[in-house]
Amino acid sequence: AGLGEFRIRDLNDEINKLLREKGHWEYRIKELGGPDYARIGPKMLDHEGKEVPGNRGYKYFGAAKDLPGVRELFEKEPLPPPRKTRAELMKDIDAEYYGYRDEDDGILEPLEQEHEKKVIAEAVEKWKMEREARLARGEEEEEENIYAVNDDESDEEGGKEREGEEGQQKFIAHVPVPTQQEIEEALVRRKKMELLQKYASETLMAQSEEAKTLLGL
């Protein structure tokens, strides 16, 4: 490491040059029918017994591994933290997450009450100023009757309850309501149809329908 950066780089380049020449001879030996030393030869190990690191076939030996820009090539990026599943995320969600316990600390509620009083006081002050301005212009102010009832609005809502002279409630219906007699007649007709469908044959039913048609019923 004391040789200096440039000397270390030159020596490392010289070693890689010799390794490339060695590789060419190994390939030539294989062409001539000899053993494949690139496959069966021993691996290059450093003094710690680890395989010599390299990048795109270029190897770094000794102090060359600690040169600026070289160490970053072999530093492994930290693994990203494992993503939590939806069930794990929902496990930590409670009422406090949605803000339902914000007032339990005894701090928020007094602040809200103080702010509410301030807003009400400002609204009252603004109303008084506007009222004084209208009176100064000579405009007569008519107080709104909050107990007044608008008949049109009540009719639009589908009917309004009204008190009769005898104290009984009366309703205004906006749809036709059948009388008791009409209801009884409809029930009788329905009962006749059920009896006919139960006991009459198809031929008799057809004749009955034909007779009704001829009589115009």
Automatic annotation (TrEMBL):
Residues 134-172 are annotated as: Disordered. InterPro entries: Helix_hairpin_bin_sf, Isy1, Isy1_sf. PANTHER family: PRE-MRNA-SPLICING FACTOR ISY1. Keywords: Nucleus. SUPFAM superfamilies: ISY1 domain-like. Residues 139-156 have a biased composition (Acidic residues). Belongs to the ISY1 family. This is ISY1 factor. The keyword Nucleus applies. It comes from the Eukaryota. Residues 157-168 have a biased composition (Basic and acidic residues). It holds the Pfam family Isy1. Transmembrane segments: none annotated. GO terms for cellular component: nucleus. One of its GO terms (biological process) is generation of catalytic spliceosome for second transesterification step. It is found in: Nucleus.
